Amino acid sequence: MSKTTTDQKFQIVDFETLPGVPCPCGSAKRAFAESEHSPGTVHVTEIADDARVHYHKEHTETYYILECDADAKIYLDGEEFPIKPGMSILIPPGVRHRAIGQMKIINIVVPKFDPADEFFDD
Question: Where do the domains of the chain lie, and which CATH numbers do they carry?
Answer without folding.
Answer: 15-116 (2.60.120.10)
